[in-house]
Amino acid sequence: MDATNEQSVAHPLGPTSDPGPPAGAEVGRRARRRWCTGTRLLVGATALWAVLLVLHVLLAGRWWFWLVVEAVPPLVLVVVPLLLLAATPFARPVRRWLSAVLVVLLLAGAYLVGLGPGWPGEGDGTARDTTVKVFAWSTDYWQMSDDKEDFYAFLRRQDADVYLLQEYLYWEGDQPVRIDDSNRLRRELPGYRLSVEGELLTLSRLPVVAEHHRAVANTGTDWYWKGAKTQRTDIRVGERTVSFYNVHLPVPFRVGDNPLSGRFRGFLRDQYARRDQELRALRSDLEDNPHPAVVSGDFNSPWMGRVTPLGAGTRGHNPGSPLFAFSWPVSDYPLPRLWRLDWLFTTGDLTVPGYRFHGGEAFSDHVAQEIRVAVPDGDPSARTRQRGS
To answer: Which CATH superfamily is domain 130-388 in?
Structure first.
């Protein structure tokens, strides 16, 4: 056999006929090249965020341990999907569908923090309405370290028709101390009627129709630990009776406690039970109340409204953009002001022509709520019949 024939036998398909690796292996290598480590991390982070968002909607206000998660600033619901969206150009194989998912998560987060329809800000009153100025404020334990003269001067300057004040008490160690500063209050704010329930103080220079107090044993510190955290006062405004609810829900946990300790978990469970009891009582009272209502105060939760609805036909109000409506902390804590713990809700035909967070930083860790509520005169059902005729 000559050399030519030997070569043709050794290479019957010629030098370019090598089929290479199997087609499946090549597809696998391409898939691995498409899904690099960064892409996998981004997809995983998006999936994890979607799960957390769903769990937050399902568990907020319904499970005691979720109170820890509820301490996260609501702004996170907008910031996290925005950051993930900014990284999607680096995940080229999946950037289109991943961007679409993150846009949905961003819109859902924005809705939950108060953006979008259903959250009135400042409404319009009419010339026939009676406008009431309301001043709602968590006072930080009533002058424990404040100058009394400056404190009372600050209250007088508000010139409010109704004051809804919380934390009307002292503390000695971890025990609440009941106080009575009524004589000083009457001197400083003459013409106001005082209504005290536990640590809640309502003052009105408008006629008080009724006070609704919850019975509680007057022994030890039961007035605080078992007493009401929502105080209802019915006040005459023009031709109408309006219920004003002064709210201070229990804190979910103590800042500084070890979250791994039994003390922390026990306090968390107890506070959740108290918060849940108070919210149930408030919702029930609002449902049965024939009068329009103003509900305001320190709810100690940044998730009231859409995540933890108050129900009973209430409408939440925002002092400006909800993304920047933060009321805590303005002092005492080395934290940025990123939480809204102070809220305003109304029912019935009431409108809110003015609402802002303003003042109180020198005396409390909460900024105050300055509110103007417009109360239409006359019978609302009669006005409805007139419009329909």
So the answer is: Endonuclease/exonuclease/phosphatase (3.60.10.10)
Number of Cβ within 10 Å of residue 120's Cβ equals 14
The C-alpha angle with vertex 16 and arms to 12 and 17, in degrees rounded to 5, equals 55
Give residue-wise pLDDT tens across range 76-113: 999 999 999 999 998 888 889 999 999 999 999 999 98
For the chain, the average pLDDT equals: 87
Cα 247 versus chain centre, distance: 14
329 prior amide bond cis, ω within 30: yes
- Which residue would you say has higher pLDDT here, 323 or 99? 99
Tokens of 109: 């987060």
What are the extents of the domains in the chain?
A: 26-112, 130-388
Whole-prediction pTM: 0.86
| Token pair recorded at residue 286 | 């609002």
Cα separation, 116 vs 119, whole angstroms: 7
Residue 110 burial by Cβ neighbours in a 10 Å radius (0-12, 13-18, 19+): middle
Amino acid present at 52: L
Total count of residues recorded for the chain: 389
